[in-house]
Design the sequence.
């Protein structure tokens, strides 16, 4: 588990930072952001309802052995991004900050 410190965090070989990047999400309060691995019962909110993180991995054909090391971004306890696979559908505000991701190793 990793929290942003001075706008940056590293988790299992992945770097996250506040700012522009190729792959990013908007976050309301960076102090509430936690990067971690999946947990039993995790779900992500989509336009059509909620989806289990387990099913996101299955749909993307991610091998079981890789799933526990995959970064999941939460904000205020809610999953907002299964990095590289799925982002939560939520009302974003222009005042929110960008949280970008740089993969340092192959997932």
Sequence:
């Amino acid at each position: 588990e990793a929290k942003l410190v001075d706008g940056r965090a590293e988790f299992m070989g992945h770097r996250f930072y506040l700012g522009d990047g190729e792959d990013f999400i908007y976050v309301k309060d960076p102090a509430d952001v936690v990067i971690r691995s999946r947990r039993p019962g995790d779900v992500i909110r989509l336009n059509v309802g909620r989806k289990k993180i387990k099913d996101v991995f299955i749909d993307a054909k991610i091998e079981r052995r890789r799933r526990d090391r995959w970064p999941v971004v939460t904000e205020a306890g809610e999953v907002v991004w299964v990095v590289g696979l799925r982002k939560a559908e939520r009302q974003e505000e222009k005042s929110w900050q960008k949280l970008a991701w740089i993969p340092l190793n192959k997932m």
User: Anything to note?
Assistant: The chain is about 10% helix and 45% strand. Residues 10 and 23 are 15 Å apart (CA to CA).
